[in-house]
Amino acid sequence: MADRPPLDLLIKNVRFVRPGHHPVETRDLGIADGRFTRVEPAIDAALARAVFDARGRYIARPDSAPGASSP
What we know:
Blueprint (H helix, E strand, L loop, with lengths): L6 E12 L2 E12 L2 E6 L7 E6 L4 E3 L11
Parallel strand pairs: 1-4, 1-5
Antiparallel strand pairs: 1-2, 2-3
């Protein structure tokens, strides 16, 4: 029986916005068990059960969005 890939979902080519970090960077995001587990310049697609190419779409930390408050 083959081992299950460590990531449930890999989102490729995301424009990643982090407060206080400029410029905006392109990153791959790995998700396992419903949580972001890896944020890297490039993650091998073979490590994920499913892959989505975000093609330059943006993601930001929720507390960095206008009008958001930190928990």
